[in-house]
Amino acid sequence: MPIELTLLGVAVLLGAVHIFAAAHVRTKQYGIEWNMGARDAELPPPNPIVGRLQRAQSNYFETFPLFAVALLAAVVAGRLGWKTELGAHLFVWARVVYLPIYAAGIPKLRTAIFGVSFVGFLLVLSAMFFG
């Protein structure tokens, strides 16, 4: 199996980590009864960590599908090479680092790390179109 597909699998697992991290801190703030209930009641604003993890999750699920489609298109088109390998590594590992940095509330570093992941996505996209 190409390394790109292994990294895609890691990216899928990272998506699950985003879901569970955000859910865990939300449940910690609002309680298990809220989590298991209909969630119809008005809630107080989320704590900073809850808000950060929700925003990190939202950001991940905005970018991950684009990366996944570009990578799978490169695989199907037979355009794997240094661009897809480096791009997939940059995207995945930068996104792994992004989550705790965002949770810690370090804005400029978070933005730089996002930029690294975006460069990875652009490399994969470039390979998809141009080989």
UniProtKB/TrEMBL annotation:
It comes from the Bacteria. Pfam families: MAPEG. Keywords: Membrane, Transmembrane, Transmembrane helix. It is found in: Membrane. SUPFAM superfamilies: MAPEG domain-like. Its main location: membrane. InterPro entries: MAPEG-like_dom_sf, Membr-assoc_MAPEG. The chain crosses the membrane at residues 6-25, 60-80, 86-105, 112-130. This is MAPEG family protein. The lineage of its organism: Bacteria, Pseudomonadati, Pseudomonadota, Alphaproteobacteria, Sphingomonadales.
